[in-house]
Design brief:
By secondary structure, the protein is mainly β. The chain has a single domain (about 30-410), classed as 7 Propeller (Methylamine Dehydrogenase, Chain H), CATH 2.130.10.30. It has one helix at about 10-25, and strands at about 35, 40-45, 60-65, 70, 75-80, 85-90, 95-100, 115-120, 130-135, 135-140, 145-150, 165-175, 180-185, 190-195, 200-205, 210, 215-220, 225-230, 240-245, 250-255, 260-265, 280-285, 295-300, 300-305, 310-315, 330-335, 345-350, 355-360, 365-370, 385-390, 395-400, 405-410. The strands form nine sheets. It has a four-stranded antiparallel β-sheet, with no helix packed on it. Strands 5-6-7-8 form a four-stranded antiparallel β-sheet, with no helix packed on it.
Length: about 400
């Protein structure tokens, strides 16, 4: 067929094709996968039933394996969910997800399970500044100051004013007029964010009950709120909040005064106030005199804090030795974790029933339950004191993230 109209010069046609292609290549990670080695790589171990280790398989790993990241991607932060999926954020503000996707928590617009990282479908022009994994929902702080959430809407934890259906792509949520999100955290059915005004905002709720297999009784949970859009949490003395962590049924917030404030279910003493009374409002944790908290981490039934003295403090349930004090005794106030002599902690993370810390000696220490090899020492034997992981000698770890029965480590 004869075509009419003006033919573009050859050079213009080449430019019209090559330039967009070049720009696309520069803005899109390579499809090639890379393993371990160098800065910004991720190792994973433990349960892998849904591909949450990101190595392209569903095989359990009792020692660390490299996550199959895209070539050229440098990861800056990691999050192992308290379920069976994982998140990571790279230096360009992209977020990657892998593992279970039954509730749309991978944020790729589908409910398809993935055993290797794939990019989350953040809105065009939005970069992630930080990311967090709840149990059934994922959260990101966007470069526009919004919180982006996706996954299950069951309890309003997406923050969209509704509790119906699934959110398979990130949805933007404003905390309050003029307030930008600084950091985020997710629990079982609750989402939280620290605002630029120093206040803590929360949304979602609880199903009202937690079954305790230890006593076959039902414990009523009394969280401070049940709401489908963000609202402020009332911290005593209007203390500004620096960070927050939430678990199966309780939440801890770190204040600018170095104190920790906790609320929620306290059956195992995981609030750390010396009691087992549920707390519907924030209550101060009984840290030792003179110790200020640097960071906090909440597991399913136990809690951790990194102190200003470099020690790790633990409290709550100790059935599996997750408090790391050499006993199986439940603690209702913080007790010192028995790290090796001369080793201070740099960062901490609490899994469901296990705990982890990066030591000042550059090694990763783990303790607690090990049913799926989540302690990473090549066995499935529980430890009630910290034991070093079997990481490659060349791997220098900057942070760790413990999930349900799997763990992640980030190289520096």
């Amino acid at each position: 067929m004869k075509r009419h109209g003006r033919r573009a010069p050859r050079g213009m046609l080449v430019g019209a094709i090559v330039l967009p292609l070049l720009l696309w290549c520069l803005s899109t990670p390579s499809s090639a996968r890379t393993g371990s080695g160098g800065e910004g790589h991720v190792y994973a171990w433990g349960d892998n039933r849904a591909g949450q280790l990101g190595d392209g398989t569903t095989a359990k790993r009792t020692t660390p394996v490299a996550v199959a990241l895209f070539a050229g991607v440098r990861i800056m932060s990691i999050a192992a969910a308290k379920s069976v999926y994982s998140l990571a954020m790279d230096s360009d503000g992209r977020v990657y997800s892998w593992g279970s996707n039954d509730d749309g928590q991978l944020g790729d617009g589908s409910t398809v399970q993935r055993s290797m990282p794939e990019a989350v479908a953040l809105p065009t022009g939005v970069r992630a500044l930080s990311a967090a994994a709840g149990v059934y929902q994922s959260l990101v702080v966007g470069s526009d100051g919004r919180v982006y959430a996706w996954g299950s809407r069951a309890y309003g934890q997406i923050g969209a004013g509704s509790s119906a259906g699934l959110q398979t792509r990130p949805l933007g949520v404003m905390l309050a007029p003029g307030v930008r999100a600084v950091s985020v955290a997710g629990g079982l059915s609750i989402s939280l964010a620290v605002g630029s005004d120093g206040r803590l905002y929360a949304w979602g709720g609880v199903d009202g009950r937690l079954f305790s297999p230890m006593t076959f009784r039902t414990v009523v949970l009394r969280h401070l709120f049940e709401r489908h859009t963000p609202g402020p949490v009332l911290i005593p003395g209007h203390v500004r909040i620096r960070s927050v962590s939430s678990g199966l049924s309780d939440t801890l917030a770190l204040g600018s005064d170095g104190r920790i404030y906790g609320w929620g279910n306290n059956y195992y003493g995981s609030i750390g106030d010396g009691t087992t009374m549920d707390r519907p409002t924030p209550t101060a944790v009984a840290l030792p005199a003179g110790v200020r908290a640097v960071s906090v981490a909440v597991g399913d039934t136990h809690s951790l804090a990194l102190g200003s003295d470099g020690r790790v403090y633990a409290w709550g349930d100790n059935t599996h030795g997750q408090l790391g004090d050499g006993t199986r005794t439940q603690r209702h106030v913080p007790t010192v974790v028995a790290l090796p002599n001369g080793v201070h902690a740099v960062s901490i993370s609490a899994g469901s029933y296990d705990s982890m810390a990066v030591g000042s000696d550059g090694r990763v220490y783990a303790w607690g339950e090990d049913r799926y090899g989540q302690l990473g020492d090549g066995s499935t034997t529980e430890h009630d004191t910290p034991e070093a992981l079997s990481l490659p000698t060349s791997a220098k770890i900057s942070s760790v993230s413990a999930g349900y029965y799997h763990c992640l480590a980030l190289t520096s």
